[in-house]
Fold each of these.
Amino acid sequence: MSVNHIKWMNFAILQGLRSKGASGKNPPVGCVIVKNDILLSYGRTGTSGRPHAEEEAMNNVVDKKNLIGSSMYVTLEPCAHKNNNGFSCAEQICKSGIKEVFISCIDPDPRTNYRGIKILRKKEIKVQENFMNNEASKLYDGFFSRILFNKPFVSLKIACSLDGKIALKNKKSKWITNELSRAYGHFLRSQNDAIMTSSSTILNDNPRMDCRLSGLEQRSPTKIILDRYLKVSSNHNIYDTTYKNDIFLYSFMEMKDHLTKNKFVKKRKVDKKLNDEDFFKFIFSDLAKKGVNNLLIETGSIINTLLLSLNLVDELVIFRSGNIIGNDGLPFVNNLNFKKINDLTNYKISSIRTFEDNVLEIRNLTNKDIRCSQAL
Ligand SMILES: NC(=O)c1ccc[n+]([C@@H]2O[C@H](COP(=O)([O-])OP(=O)(O)OC[C@H]3O[C@@H](n4cnc5c(N)ncnc54)[C@H](OP(=O)(O)O)[C@@H]3O)[C@@H](O)[C@H]2O)c1
């Protein structure tokens, strides 16, 4: 494998990352066009999903003759379905004169799945598929989960003490982790399409759940509120819509007169008879239908325990400080009542970093590999 191909695909992956959490229901894609090992152009998925990265990269080349004989590096298979101009990305590539395309991940969307590649190969464009698939697949954990499993990719964020407690006995939790950790937590919010919290956490902490990093405020995710009995009033910070993001409110109650003045609130009634598993499955599939690929959850012990016991968490994002709270604190997870070690769920480490004396561990569920080429 040539080193330069790796370099250019890494650049394409970085472009894709810039769109993560800001590409609507479409997947975040990065694309780079190179000729004679010199960068011609690059692009990434636009806000709300259009233009596609390949379109943007090709449009950015002023003299289109330069595209003839060039190479494209793209993190997801070019689409085979037509855009508003009547052409798919694969067809536009065919018309451009690009001679070879390196593709990291195959698109599971049935409108494209291997059809994009077929269109390219039919025009004798050299295609290398699954190129750096491992490196790029992290971009698509959410998109693949939504398309293949009808649920968003669920990341559970936990800010805890050294001994795994998320609040004191009196439920005070501001602040267990340091400023840098919290800033990174805001960055993670910007990379997710939606953020979920509960009535209990809202009533205790009055959080805003937006992204308050300077310059990234508009990347604040859609807010998802679990408030089965409508305990949270419109005065709580969560209903602040400065950044104009939608709020999905899930409740058992009729909501005709509730929060009628807030046009950002989308009311979603949940059947009271659903058991815990069906309750969350209903919400996750509803969110998937709305195009939510990546869902960040910031809740306390009760919801964390439910989600973990139901195996609904794909990724744990644990910020751990050096403080010790003790056994009277609120644990990040309550009893799970396992009887056999072999039955324990394993979350494998995918990254670790430090923020001064805080540690961030990101761990993924081991038994669910959603890299697309394998899932199909
Ligand atoms: N450090 C951290 O990472 C972190 C993050 C978040 C929260 N916290 C802390 O955690 C504390 C709150 O934790 P918590 O355990 O009380 O609350 P929680 O887990 O956030 O939420 C529990 C609430 O969720 C609602 N709920 C919705 N669906 C449910 C279901 N199917 N089954 C049961 N309950 C359901 C219930 O309220 P309804 O009956 O009203 O629906 C329940 O009281 C706060 O002190 C907060 O500071 C810490």
Amino acid sequence: MGHQPLAPIYCALSLALMFLLPPLKAAATPERLETNAAYIYNAPNWLKRNRAEKSIRRIQRDLEWSIRRVPVYFYKDVDAFTKAHSLGPFVTAVTVSNSKGSTIHLGPKVTNDNFDQVFSHELVHVIVYQKYKGAIPKWLEEGLANHLAKKKKVDYKWLAQQKLPDDVTTALVHPLNTNSYNDAVFKYKASQALAEMLSKKCDLTNLLRLSVERKMQNYIVTYCEIKDLNATFKEWVKKKAG
Ligand SMILES: [Zn+2]
């Protein structure tokens, strides 16, 4: 046994001891919540492990994947959160993925009210990275995350009044790369509308199954039989708005 005296604080044994020795319990506030899919640091008091597990279970089931554990950080401070990403002032939470894996950062705007939806959204990004690699198109990723996180359905009357892009596959990439909040919101909503369209016109579960490490965009044509994505999208928005 090496000597890393601090590490066992978080193991199951110390949790069991806390349980057996009630006087220690109050003092020993756990510094992180542990699940198989995530270590959650600086969790606020309202967040309990079971609640985090619920989002994890649902998104893992929908995307048929067991997450390789990722760190999740809560931020109380806007500046510290802003420093953790470089995506500007509009973001509530962010998942950073690179060769070392994914990390979820939850900003001060993540609350008891919106946690489940925000966390579920970020978990979709983690699985998109771990399981699908580059298979899910960038123009769909944010919308798919919103759709699976059960964000409120798109307001098509509003969307139909916006100028829809001629090519969604280029226009909806990097939705936060803008100075306009409205522009960012539009791109998220349009992407979510595309996810809603695919789940209606296609079997989304099967489409996702086919797309593991293989470009989904090809299956949208062959499996979903959507030959002209942009024209189909414009028709879809019009129909839903009417
Ligand atoms: Zn996102």
